[in-house]
Amino acid sequence: MYRFNGVSPIEAFLISVGERTEADSYNSILNQSIPVNRISVVRNIRGIHNALNAVNKKVTSEFYVRVDADMVLDRDCVEVLYGRIKKDTNLCRVQGLLRDPFLGRIWGISIFRSCYTKYYHYSGNIGQDREFDQAMQAKGYRLEKYKKLLGVHHPDYTFKEIACKFIHEGKKIAFYRNKGRLDSDMSQLIKLAGKGSIDAFFAIFFIGIGLVQPGAKDKDFCLCNELGLSREKILESSGIVELSSRKEILRAANAVAKKCSKIFYLNNKG
Fold first, then answer.
1. Domain range annotation of the chain
2. Structure pTM?
3. DSSP 146-172
4. How far is residue 183's CA from residue 96's CA, in Å, rounded to a whole number?
5. What is the pLDDT of residues 194-234, one digit of tens each?
6. pLDDT per residue over 149-193, tens digit each?
7. Strands 142-153, 39-43: parallel, antiparallel or unpaired by DSSP?
8. CATH topology (fold) of 10-153
9. How far apart are alpha carbons 178 and 212 in whole angstroms?
10. Residue 237 in contact with residue 209, Cβ under 8 Å?
11. For the purposes of burial, counting CB atoms within 10 Å of the CB of 180, is it exposed (0-12), middle (13-18) or buried (19 or more)?
């Protein structure tokens, strides 16, 4: 265990929009094997970029950990991340893995070196995480991904939350495709779908909804053409996340999935 002479150089920020796990998340920070000097709760700020920018404005310590309220950290999480980042003064962020009951292992919990990162302004683009990485690397700073599980992400999913997750991934795919690149996580997301309370048919269907949100370019509607569906019909389907009947959604998704699963995999391979 690290022992600090005086005040801990690490502070923690808990970003919350009223998640069911907020108290568990807070307590997991409080009970870390090494102390943080304070825990600041950033609550109910609309737009994730606004919440991240609010965190950066509040930073006063040499290092800070940013925790979403749907994360519950292992007891040694902060100690492990701190041990990595303090070894190299050129490291601006170290990221660890979280256990997600639906998606498996995901990148999620990070520690930052504030002198490099606290002045960064998040844009609000759906690709803002990659924009951050590119901006830091352009300045010559390093980012490390440390393959150690350090906590749990989103311990319990509702069906609607799963649907919204895949719609968001569809939007990300459209965003990066419009920038001339494809999202390499797409086929993996579809494969992972069967591990949760949603199956691959749903995953493909909801990803498709995300792809055809307003603002996507016409080439993203090739999916509609292959299926013989109109743009309007698929856009209307976005309201399906409000339905409570899984059977009713499956009926619609099943017809879509049979034709479009191969299309997604082909698109993903370029």
1. 10-153, 159-268
2. 0.74
3. EEEEEEEE-SS--HHHHHHHHHHHHHH
4. 21
5. 444 445 556 666 666 666 654 555 555 555 555 455 555 55
6. 999 998 777 766 777 777 777 777 767 766 666 544 555 555 555
7. unpaired
8. Spore Coat Polysaccharide Biosynthesis Protein SpsA; Chain A (3.90.550)
9. 12
10. yes
11. exposed
